[in-house]
Amino acid sequence: MSEKIKIDPYGFREYDARWLYKKDINNQGITNLGKGFGTQIKKRTGRDNPRVIVGHDYRSYSEEIKTELKKGLISTGCHIEDVGLSLSPMVYFAQFNLDADAVAMVTASHNENGWTGVKMGIKKGLTHAPEEMKELKDITLNEKFSNGEGNEKLIEDFQQVYKDDLINSNKINKKLKVVVACGNGTAGVFAPDILRGIGCEVIELDCNLDWTFPKYNPNPEDLKMLHAIAKVVKDNNADIGFGFDGDGDRVGVIDNEGNEIFSDKIGLLIARNLSTKYKNSKFVVDVKSTGLYLKDNVLLKNNCETIYWKTGHSHIKRKVNTEKALAGFEKSGHFFFNQPLGYGYDDGINSAIHVCNLLDNQNKRMSEIINELPNTYQTPTMAPFCKDEEKYQVVEELINQVEEIKNNKTKIDDQIITEVLTVNGVRFSFEDGSWGLIRASSNKPSLVIVTESPTSDDRKKKIFNFIDDLLQKTGKVGKYDQKI
């Protein structure tokens, strides 16, 4: 008797699909996801036999999942081109390089073991946004599948094609000493080779593949991972340290003194570096990012515009695309470089290369470059538990409360709220440029909280306390993953 199909509807997130494997989705469910995606590709491209690039990350069960996914895709008529063990950006690159119709990357990125997921895209350089996810969910759960005769072939040695593409156009002159940390995730196969290839001296940290993630999850926002990199940077007197996430589309950066530099500040430094060559450019940043972009004298001098947009790699990618922005930067470490610097998608290794270019261009250490930015006090990204089925409603109520506080001119730490941005949850700013953010996480049952103050650490904390107080009063918010 064949296994009953199991596929939890909540696995269809805003811009990718993620489940706890076997608990929330089983093999039949994954085959159906493949059928759903194959049907959707045919519908959106108008082709009977669309070509689909498929890759997988280094988890013990990812190949098994890829096999089931391919089964579903092939049954709808898709021609699969399997590039094997991959990073998400390698799969995105393959769509351009091999001129294919769509991509499917089996990865749960930095989620804990047990999770699986698929990043999918049809239009080159873009991944599914909420509208496509909604359509995919409908096709998959209601089994509105088309039939066809597909096939599959293995693309040999594509890893090298991807590596060479990044190496050949990015050689640097300075011999930078670089710590490369991969948290035992898939980036270990790629990042050390590529950074050596452009001319860096590489010190490897946890670059051997081990899907049990013995130390910590490969997540450049994880403080444990960042502290480990900092130690190796200081012990080796390195110029910089890079931490890559599980599927290689994000990077975290540690300066030569072992200090973590939040990715939004790195984005600002890269934007400044680019703005001198590419005047009048647009940059897109997410609502979790520092407020410094708006007042930055270098960007203003070079007539550059910064747009704050919804958090999420898919949202920022699309906004970079529609605004024809030069680049986009997300606080979580997803960076997007548009032509002529890249194809518009997020690639952690390409982002690290841009940081190397920044150091190559200036006769200064990273700590000196970062010190040229105005100081701000910023919390890490904090995620208090909130049920998937309640989180959006909770945020809606909090938006109303914050707007009321603004209208009543109620003071928080002697400051009134001067601006409320609601493109993604609520980001409220104060007279001195301090701000706080509350939004729903798009891939986990939690909220996302960030605060920043250019004035003092104390004010940063007071804004957090204000938010925390609002959250506790809802009675629907649980424990934080990390807290200041």
Protein described:
This protein is α/β, with parallel strands linked by helices and 484 residues long. The protein has 4 domains: 9-156, Alpha-D-Glucose-1,6-Bisphosphate, subunit A, domain 3 (Alpha-D-Glucose-1,6-Bisphosphate, Chain A, domain 3); 161-257, Alpha-D-Glucose-1,6-Bisphosphate, subunit A, domain 3 (Alpha-D-Glucose-1,6-Bisphosphate, Chain A, domain 3, 3-Layer(aba) Sandwich); 261-371, Alpha-D-Glucose-1,6-Bisphosphate, Chain A, domain 3; 377-474, Alpha-D-phosphohexomutase, C-terminal domain (TATA-Binding Protein), CATH 3.30.310. Helices cover 37% and strands 20% of the residues. It contains 15 helices and 20 strands. A 6-stranded mixed sheet has the order 1-5-4-2-3-6, with helices on both faces. The radius of gyration is 22 Å and the shape is globular. 54% of the residues are buried. The model has no long low-confidence stretch (mean pLDDT 95).
Unreliable segments of 5+ consecutive residues: none
| Assembly state | single chain
The largest pleated sheet is described as: 6 strands, mixed
In the sheet with the most strands, the strands line up as 1-5-4-2-3-6
CATH class of the largest domain: Alpha Beta
Rg is: 22 Å
Number of helices: 15
**How many strand units?**
20
The assigned structural class equals alpha/beta
Shape: globular
